[in-house]
Amino acid sequence: MDISDIATTDYIEIEAESNLGKARSIFEEENPKGIIVMRAGEYEGVLTQKQLLRSHIEDHTKVETLAKSAPKVERTDNVRDVARSLVEGGTKVAPVFEGGELWGVVDEDNILEGVLEHLDTLTVEDIFTENVITVGEDATLGQAINRLREHGISRLPVVDDDGFLTGVVTTHDVVDFATRNEQRITGKGDRAGDLDRMLDLPVYDVMSSPVETTSLGESVRDAVSRMLDSDYAGLVVTPEDDDRVVGGVLTKTDVLRALSYTEEDVMDVQITNIKLLDTISRADIRESISEISDKYQKMQVRHAHVRFQEHKETLRGTPLIQCAIRLRTNRGQVAGSGEGYGAEQAFSVARDKLERNVLEVKGVQSDREYEGQLLRKLGEL
Predict the structure, then answer these.
(1) Beta strands in 133-212 (DSSP E)
(2) Helix, strand, or coil (residue 278)
(3) Is the pLDDT of residue 8 over 90?
(4) What is the mean pLDDT of residues 40-60?
(5) Residue 53 in contact with residue 149, Cβ under 8 Å?
(6) What is the pTM of this model?
(7) Final residue before a domain boundary, out of 225, 255, 285
(8) Where does a domain end: 72, 98, 120?
């Protein structure tokens, strides 16, 4: 299936010379996945809501400062390839070209709506993200924003003192709340002080509640249908017997990632922010992860996701990068993360942490296998 009937000519443009205040207003009023940035009638890049949240830049700054390149796709490209391009480009929207000219856009919702009928063969358990970043009710809005930035995510389940789910705070919630409150700030007041007070508010005042949840046994089709109907970017995964316990999250990005799984004999590895690779290649990463998989034969890796996140700190011009590796295996999910200057060093640190975690999982399972054998022997006596 290609995207010729999935992509759309219905999109929002903004000039590169416009200020970010105008872009914030567009996101508040229209809630698009992204805005296409143009310069003198030519495609320049895209701007997403997440980019605005991760920025400390003032509203009067030009849009071109935050505009970033997005993977360019052709109107006849395969859906799997486009899904992979969105995931690896770390974006929810991409420009669509036809005959060398900008024709329209395709976003994650377009793709998910187009393939919805094919998603009933998957369950949430097959593709959800198990390792979840949460935030407490009493954490401040500023702390929540920092956590969203640090981990490159768009939603945080909110938990109470007992660790039970009480709400969720998303990028959209934060931007919407900040925009509404900034409009109340007048030129006569202390604008910086007012903004500081906003950041000191508890997450409880900003979060959405009750939370839309899903269970491991629900079909991905049903879960995605609810996301599309309610305009949610994700759902919190909870056990079927207790919807207060956070067991994971299912996001639209998780579904896109599953769509792009390959049927090749080699391990499928997806890399978010692949442009940050410098002295290391996709082949190097795949080979390195395969070594871990081959070393522990009983652990079969079905899919690997590697995400790179660039920080502002540099060392002799080389940026500090965070790398997070997540493996989906026949023994569940295993992850490892680390930081280093440059993608290769960051990946090496994350890989070492991953291998230690693999050993820990292997050790725990070996203990369980021994315990099972012992119980069986005792039962025979």
Answers:
(1) 135-136, 155-159, 165-170
(2) coil
(3) yes
(4) 81
(5) yes
(6) 0.72
(7) 255
(8) 120
Residue bearing the bigger pLDDT, 78 or 50: 78
User: Are 298 and 330 members of one domain?
Assistant: yes
Provide the angle, in degrees to the nearest 10, between the axes of the packed helices 20-30 and 171-182.
120
The Cα-based distances of 277 to 152, 287, 318 in angstroms read 17, 15, 12
Span 269-288, mean pLDDT? 87
Is the residue at 1 inside a domain? no
Q: Which residues share a beta bridge with 340?
A: 321
Distance of alpha carbon 252 from alpha carbon 229, whole angstroms: 13
Indicate whether 260 belongs to any domain: no
The tokens of 165 are what?
């789910």
Range of the domain at 47: 13-120
CATH classification at residue 353: 3.30.160.100
Q: What is the CB-side half-sphere exposure of residue 198 using CA atoms within 13 A?
A: 19
Quote the pLDDT of residue 323: 93
Triad 45, 50, 65: Cα angle to 5°: 45
Q: Pairing relation of β-strands 73-74 and 93-98? A: parallel
Q: Are residues 230 and 288 in the same domain?
A: no
The number of distinct structural domains making up the chain is 3
Task: Give 89-125 pLDDT, tens digit per residue.
Answer: 878 899 999 998 999 999 999 999 999 998 988 899 9
Contact 111, 256 (CB under 8 A): yes
The arrangement of strands across the sheet holding 101-107 comes to 73-74, 93-98, 101-107
pLDDT score of 333: 80
Q: Which helix (H) or strand (E) holds 50?
A: helix 49-53
Residue that has been written with the tokens 């770390």 in this structure = 90
Q: Check whether residue 250 and residue 271 sit in a common domain.
A: no
Q: Answer yes or no: do 129 and 227 share one domain.
A: yes
